């Protein structure tokens, strides 16, 4: 499966879920960041990347990319300007915007006929109503950008660059740095271990985007970072993973599998051990909708094309199973 991924997807514009995808306006619209801002670790660009990453949950990647492309430039700025989000929270006059805790426990944001509705302070003017309409997700999803901004503030940081520097200065080890950054991000509404791992993999794991150096690689133990999503779960079920089903157990199982794959042997310029890259192969192989979009894929190939795959892959390939 890793050979299949490296031959067809690695380093291409269709390698969904890598930093390269978030640099492509044709894929994510005005949420796209420049390669220069990314490699510099520009905190404004990384905050935009984090907000966009948080969208990728409970819906297909292709659907989320359509939503992102449908948000105009001004509204994208409104959703991804960290300083503005903090100012609006402070000036809103609503105690639900005081902290991530109050936003989680007090704010009762929902939708009615597609319009954002607040059932906690319905008389108040609140930017979260507009945000939940723009993001086209659950009624409460408009909390996400402001909650991420508050989470960074509660970690004692002005922005993501300061947050990273602060953790690097106080953590006991690269593994501790990785864990503490995950914990800080997970304070935000709807930022789970999966979403925090997605973001950290985008900014810290090497080799996902050939020729582009991730800005946070130094000081983190990036081998700890694995993203377990529904497609990875499909792979785990297909190979008979016995459990347990906790995120941590599945993460460690994928890391153990990755130790059996010498990536440098398959592609000499890669790090020998990179669980996130191996996991990317699992994810893309099982991603039916993403594979249909990719012109490099064999998803719509002929039976002769399929016959060139090992029988183990043919047995779990979504094209053949469905």
The count of helical stretches stands at 21
Give the helix/strand class. mainly alpha
Whole-number mean pLDDT = 95
SSE string, helices as H and strands as E? HHHHHHHHEEHHHHHHHHHHHHH
User: How many distinct beta strands?
Assistant: 2
- The total number of structural domains is 2
Reading side by side through the largest sheet, how are the strands ordered? 1-2
- β-sheet strand percentage: under 5%
The biggest beta sheet is recorded as:
2 strands, antiparallel
- Distance between termini? 18 Å
Shape: globular
Outline the structure in words.
With about 325 residues, the protein is mainly α. It has two domains: about 1-10 and about 225-320, no CATH class; about 20-220, no CATH class. About 55% of the residues lie in helices and about 0% in strands. The chain has 21 helices and two strands. The protein has a two-stranded antiparallel ribbon with strand order 1-2. The longest helix has 12 residues, at about 45-55. It starts with a helix and ends with a helix. The mean pLDDT is about 95.
Which keywords apply here?
2 strands, mainly alpha, two-stranded antiparallel sheet, 322 residues
Summarize the structure.
This protein has 322 residues and is mainly alpha-helical. Helices cover 53% and strands 2% of the residues.
Topology:
Layout: H1 2-8, H2 25-28, H3 35-40, H4 43-54, H5 61-69, H6 73-80, H7 82-91, H8 100-105, E1 109-112, E2 115-118, H9 127-135, H10 144-154, H11 160-170, H12 174-185, H13 193-204, H14 230-238, H15 247-258, H16 263-266, H17 275-285, H18 288-293, H19 303-307, H20 311-314, H21 318-321
Antiparallel strand pairs: 1-2
Helix pairs in contact: 1-17, 4-13, 7-10, 11-12, 12-13, 14-17, 15-17
């Amino acid at each position: 499966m890793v050979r299949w991924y490296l031959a067809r997807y690695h380093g291409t514009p269709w390698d969904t879920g890598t930093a390269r995808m978030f640099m492509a306006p044709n894929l994510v619209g005005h949420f796209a960041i420049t390669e220069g801002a990314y490699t510099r670790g520009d905190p404004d660009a990384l905050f935009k990347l984090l907000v966009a990453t948080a969208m990728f949950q409970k819906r297909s990647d292709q659907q989320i990319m359509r939503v992102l492309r449908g948000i105009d430039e001004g509204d994208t700025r409104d959703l991804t300007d960290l300083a503005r989000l903090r100012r609006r929270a402070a000036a809103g006059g609503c105690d639900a915007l005081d902290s991530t805790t109050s936003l989680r426990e007090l704010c009762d944001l929902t939708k009615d006929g597609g319009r954002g509705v607040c059932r906690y302070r319905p008389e108040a003017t609140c930017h979260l109503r507009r945000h939940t309409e723009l993001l086209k997700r659950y009624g409460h999803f408009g909390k996400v950008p402001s909650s991420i901004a508050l989470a960074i503030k509660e970690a004692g940081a002005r922005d993501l660059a300061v947050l990273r520097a602060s953790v690097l200065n106080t953590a006991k080890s690269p593994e501790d740095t990785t864990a503490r950054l995950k914990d800080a991000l997970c304070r935000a509404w709807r930022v789970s271990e999966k979403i925090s791992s997605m973001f950290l993999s985008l900014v810290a794991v090497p080799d996902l985007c050939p020729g582009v150096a991730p800005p946070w690689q130094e000081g983190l133990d990036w081998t700890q970072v694995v993203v377990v999503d529904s497609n990875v779960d499909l792979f785990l079920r297909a190979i008979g993973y016995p459990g347990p089903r906790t995120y941590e157990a599945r993460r460690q199982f994928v890391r153990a599998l990755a130790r059996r794959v010498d990536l440098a042997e398959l592609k000499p310029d890669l790090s020998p051990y990179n669980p996130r890259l191996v996991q990317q192969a699992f994810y893309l192989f099982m991603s039916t909708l993403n594979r249909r979009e990719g012109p490099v894929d064999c998803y719509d190939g002929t039976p002769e094309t399929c016959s060139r795959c090992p029988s183990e892959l043919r047995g779990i390939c979504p094209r053949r199973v469905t």
